[in-house]
Specification:
By secondary structure, this protein is mostly beta strands. It contains no helices and 16 strands. The chain has strands at about 1-5, 10-15, 20-30, 35-45, 50-55, 60, 65-75, 80-85, 90-95, 110-115, 120-125, 130-135, 150-155, 160, 170-175, 180-185. A hairpin with a 3-residue loop joins strand 7 and strand 8. The radius of gyration is 20 Å and the shape is flat.
Length: about 180
Amino acid sequence: MIDVGSLSKGMYIKYDGDIYRVVDVNKHFRARGSGLIRTKLKNLSSGLVREVNFNSGEKVEEAEVTFRKASYIYNDGEMYYFMDAETFEQYGIPETEIEDEKNYLVENTEVDLIMHDGKPIGIQLPTSVVLEVVETEPGFKGDTVSGGGKPAILETGLKITVPFFVEKGQKVRVDTRTGEYIERA
């Protein structure tokens, strides 16, 4: 059991019989009283995010999760399949459990499988991935005055804003935490 005051973003806890990833933590302290810890927890089995308030001093159980290196191999419309890098065993994860992460997956993307009781319950992406631009408008000379960018659609269907000099067919590096363009690859 761990004190809720030590919760931080990215931790995994057991709460109400399910496993949750801590998405956000805000600590509020009142004068002459106990503090209030406001959290956003993502249920790893349903994908739903819920807000839970704890009083300081409460305890929660830390979930025992392990991480295994794996590669994304394919999807069949409902399940996304990954191959363990050590044992070459294949694991299927329902699309609903990786709703946010699927926009960054192309064949052979290296990920960490989040395992609980020997079963995969989610994935952890690398901090950036390289994706190809499949659709964007051509840039025009003089467009750089605004300093903005133009919309682009990547090979996975992800829509991002890229600088004007990026053209269709080029590969770009995208931050998986924010979904923003980093650089040309």
